Amino acid sequence: MKTLYGVGVGPGDPDLLTLKAIKVIRSADYVFVPRPKPDKQGMAEAIAAEYLQGKRVITLHFPMGPDNVDLYKRTAETLDRTLKDGESGAFITIGDPMTYSTFTYVMFEAQNLDMQCVLVPGISTCNATAAALQMPVTIKGESFYLADGSVDEEVLRRVQSVCVLKPRKQSAETLEKLEKYGFEYRYIKRCSFPDQEIWCDRRAIEEDRDYMSALFSRKRG
Amino acid sequence: MKTLYGVGVGPGDPDLLTLKAIKVIRSADYVFVPRPKPDKQGMAEAIAAEYLQGKRVITLHFPMGPDNVDLYKRTAETLDRTLKDGESGAFITIGDPMTYSTFTYVMFEAQNLDMQCVLVPGISTCNATAAALQMPVTIKGESFYLADGSVDEEVLRRVQSVCVLKPRKQSAETLEKLEKYGFEYRYIKRCSFPDQEIWCDRRAIEEDRDYMSALFSRKRG
């Protein structure tokens, strides 16, 4: 049996790694590191850099863009070819491996190849954002909606808080809906990184196209 | 200025603490520890036990039950009286401090007393549950709904995945709604603890009243 760990390394601050993530990276036979460009350090790689020293690191080319089933299949085949029976590999991924992560697709393909998958949850950008803004994700009796890109108006009517990851192209439309339903919002760029920024200005948010961004909002009480 | 840290210690497994949580606990002048019964170790306290050795620990009585504004106000006053100007206290809390946590209310009261609050996000039960079940919280283009107790049918119609924390008394009604909208569900008890259990049987789930439980579900593809 070959074991593939999906390891969430958190939103950006290396101190937001869990002890479990570090232990799994340290004990794995290989560490698999996704890179949007082959010769440029990836984000998960930068966050976990300290723990990659002395490890057998395999970089994997993951270009930005639409989902690519072939790529996930080929990636799983690479992982399967790399590991010998009884060996383990830690695939590191930013945030949480089950929340808007391409690792999810790789996991499904690896399971098709009979690899044993084990997940190590990570601090998601959504929780890090709520912490940075001191705005509750949820309090007792309330509910929360997490979306990427666009939001559903009917859901906005019925929940008290919302986080939209990568609002980019649809942000003008999203902000209009949030205002319509009485939400107060903040826009956060590069949450938990040293250059984190928090914006409130609607026009500025609408014009921004940063990939590492989130819109967090709560209904006015 | 007095600083109050709200420190999420994760869902149960001590290895799911972040480095940041450990650093803040270790460097704080005091650690504040909530207990449902005065003479019984609290859950956050058990999870972080290793890092409390040699610390000045102040236990706070937090009985289970409905929210209690007076209690949160009195707690904030206790924190304020304990800390001298320039000192810091780490209030530890299970999961994430902004997700269904009584710490949220304590934070608001502490802010009213001009204490500086800083939050350290923790792995939420929701992310740990998704990892244990290998069921995505969200993949690209999908959305997620987090609730406690009861769920809104109209939201279920419009999202792909749902986590209900503490489904207890309303679980029969919730399971009926989930089945109606084509969700596949799993019930998890004491996620990430050594005695974690995963159940699928509707009748058994309906009859269980465990406080440390979550219902996680995704629409069939």
Automatic annotation (TrEMBL), chains A, B:
GO terms for biological process: cobalamin biosynthetic process; methylation. GO terms for molecular function: precorrin-2 C20-methyltransferase activity. Keywords: Cobalamin biosynthesis, Methyltransferase, S-adenosyl-L-methionine, Transferase. InterPro entries: 4pyrrol_Mease, 4pyrrol_Methylase_sf, 4pyrrole_Mease_sub1, 4pyrrole_Mease_sub2, CobI/CbiL, CobI/CbiL/CobIJ_dom. Pathway: Cofactor biosynthesis; adenosylcobalamin biosynthesis. Residues 3-199 form the Tetrapyrrole methylase domain. The keyword Calcium does not apply. It comes from the Bacteria. It holds the Pfam family TP_methylase. Belongs to the precorrin methyltransferase family. This is Precorrin-2 C(20)-methyltransferase.
